[in-house]
Design a protein that fits this description.
This protein is an alpha+beta fold and 280 residues long. It has 2 domains: 141 residues, 2,3-Dihydroxybiphenyl 1,2-Dioxygenase, domain 1 (Roll); 119 residues, 2,3-Dihydroxybiphenyl 1,2-Dioxygenase, domain 1. The protein is 21% helix and 41% strand. The strands form 2 sheets. The chain has an 8-stranded mixed β-barrel. An 8-stranded mixed β-sheet has the order 10-11-12-9-13-16-15-14. A hairpin with a 4-residue loop joins strand 10 and strand 11. It is globular.
C-alpha cells in the first residue's frame, strides 16, 4: 500500500529557532523553507537518504495552523506525526473504502519555497481516527516538483533515519493496522523480559518503525516518542555537537550488537533523539 515513510513532522512554536537548533544538530542546512498559504503554516525541511524531516509552525490562520496549535497547546513542541508515501493514492483511497473505513476525499497540497519561489505539489489522504489512534498521520502522493538533495554530506552528519519509536498500549491492534491493512512488513515481535514490555519492529524503505507496548486499561492509543539517526562516524558527530554547544551523552555500546550510540540532550524541540553508528 505504501512505498516509503515519506516524512516526519515536529510541531514547533518558533520556526526560526527550531531551524537553528536542528542545523546545529544535523550539521547541515534545510533544503526547503516554505509556506502552505491555504493551511496557515510554514515549514523547514531537512532531506535524508530515506525520508525527510519537517519542522512545522503555525504562522497565520487556517486548518493546518489550528491543528498545530492544538498540539502545541496540549503537549508543547515535539514529534507529532509521520506521513506515508504512495504512488497510487486513488488506489489507497479505494482499498480503505473497500474495507469500510470512513475516509474523506483526496485533497490537493502545495508548498512554496521562500528562497526561490519554487513550487511543489502533492495529493493528501487523511486517515481516519481508528487507523491513526492518536498519531497525526496521512498518505501523500507527490505530483509535481522534488525536494533538493542534501549535498556534501559530512560523516559527522546523519545520512538516514535509522528508526522511529512509537509507544502503544495495544500491540495486537497495531499489528492489525500496520501489517494487515497498511501492508508494512513486521520484522520482529518479541517480549523483552527484563523490560517486561513487548516490542515490534516494522520495516519500510530502510527505516524501522519500533513499537513498544505498555499495557493499560485505556482505549487503544499510539503516540510518537523519539527518533534515531544513523551516522557514519559517531566520534566526529559527537565532537561536532559538543563544539556547537549541543548537550550529548558519552558514546557507548548500543543494545544492538555492533552499534555505538549517543543521546542528544538539547536542541531537539522535545524530541528524544539518538545517534547510532552501525559498525558492520
Amino acid at each position: 500500500m505504501f512505498n516509503q515513510l515519506d516524512h516526519l513532522i515536529v510541531a514547533v512554536n518558533d520556526l526560526q529557532a527550531a531551524k537553528n537548533n536542528y542545523q546545529k544538530l544535523f550539521g547541515l542546512a534545510p533544503v526547503w523553507s516554505g509556506t502552505h498559504k491555504e493551511l496557515g503554516t510554514s515549514n523547514s525541511l531537512f532531506n535524508f537518504q530515506n525520508t525527510y524531516f519537517e519542522l512545522l509552525s503555525p504562522t497565520s490562520e487556517g486548518l493546518g495552523a489550528d491543528l498545530i496549535n492544538h498540539y502545541l497547546d496540549t503537549s508543547g513542541e515535539g514529534l507529532i506525526g509521520m506521513v506515508f508515501a504512495t504512488k497510487n493514492i486513488v488506489g489507497v483511497h479505494n482499498a480503505l473504502k473497500g474495507r469500510e473505513f470512513l475516509v474523506g476525499d483526496i485533497s490537493d497540497g502545495e508548498g512554496i519555497n521562500s528562497a526561490d519561489q519554487r513550487v511543489r505539489k502533492w495529493k493528501n489522504l487523511f486517515l481516519p481516527p481508528e487507523l491513526t489512534r492518536g498519531i497525526f498521520s496521512f498518505v501523500i502522493e507527490h505530483t509535481d516538483g522534488n525536494l533538493p538533495e542534501t549535498k556534501n554530506l559530512e560523516a559527522s552528519s546523519p545520512h538516514k533515519l535509522d528508526h522511529v519509536v512509537i509507544n502503544t498500549n495495544d500491540a495486537d491492534g497495531f499489528i492489525e493496522i500496520y501489517k494487515d491493512i497498511f501492508d508494512i512488513r513486521l520484522a520482529l515481535d518479541k517480549t523483552i523480559e527484563h523490560w517486561q514490555k513487548r516490542m515490534l519492529f516494522f520495516r519500510l524503505n530502510q527505516t524501522t518503525i519500533e513499537v513498544i507496548e505498555q499495557q493499560d486499561d485505556l482505549p487503544p492509543s499510539d503516540k510518537m516518542w523519539g527518533l534515531a539517526w544513523a551516522v557514519k562516524d559517531i566520534e566526529k558527530a559527537h565532537q561536532r555537537l559538543l563544539d556547537e554547544g549541543v548537550k550529548v551523552t558519552p558514546i557507548q555500546k548500543g543494545v544492538k550488537e555492533k552499534t555505538l550510540v549517543a543521546t542528544i540532550k538539547s536542541h531537539t524541540q522535545n524530541v528524544p533523539t539518538l545517534l547510532i553508528q552501525h559498525l558492520d
